[in-house]
Specification:
The chain is mainly α. Helix content is 66%, strand content 0%. α1 runs antiparallel to α3. 26% of the residues are buried.
């Protein structure tokens, strides 16, 4: 009997599981980063968030870089992929902390309310925890 429970390589079928975390991070960050260039653009995002234009641009580019690096980290070999994963996750942390403290703080639930029109911080905290995990584990995730 050669099941994953009795195999000499336990849970080897879960070797692809890191892609679940990567897909979650990359899809959100690539979309939100690219979306900041659409519609009213970076200037509109800067005005809504009351940020200087250069900071708004850095956030959008940082989100795109996060998504790309987390994906590339899973493809690139050895220490290069590990560094890309950790760097992408590291980019995510200050972006998420900014979103939490500047916009979502004070409400946990993600639903929009009168006091929190963009919703609470539940989603951003979850992404921040995934980012911290990927930053700590790299490609050993």
């Amino acid at each position: 009997m050669n099941s994953t429970l009795t195999s000499s390589r336990p849970f080897s079928r879960a070797a692809w599981a890191h892609w679940l975390l990567r897909a979650a991070m990359a899809s959100v960050f690539l979309y939100t980063g690219a979306d900041k260039f659409a519609g009213s653009g970076i200037q509109g995002f800067a005005q809504i968030m009351d940020l200087p234009w250069v900071i708004a641009l850095a956030v959008a580019l940082g989100e795109i870089a996060t998504g790309l690096l987390v994906l590339l980290g899973g493809i690139l070999p050895n220490s290069v992929g590990d560094a890309a994963t950790r760097l992408g996750a590291m980019f995510a942390v200050p972006i998420l902390l900014g979103a939490i403290f500047l916009e979502h703080w004070g409400q946990w639930h993600f639903m929009a309310t009168a006091s929190h029109p963009l919703g609470g911080m539940m989603f951003q905290v979850t992404l921040a925890l995934i980012a911290l995990y990927l930053m700590a584990k790299g490609n050993r995730a």
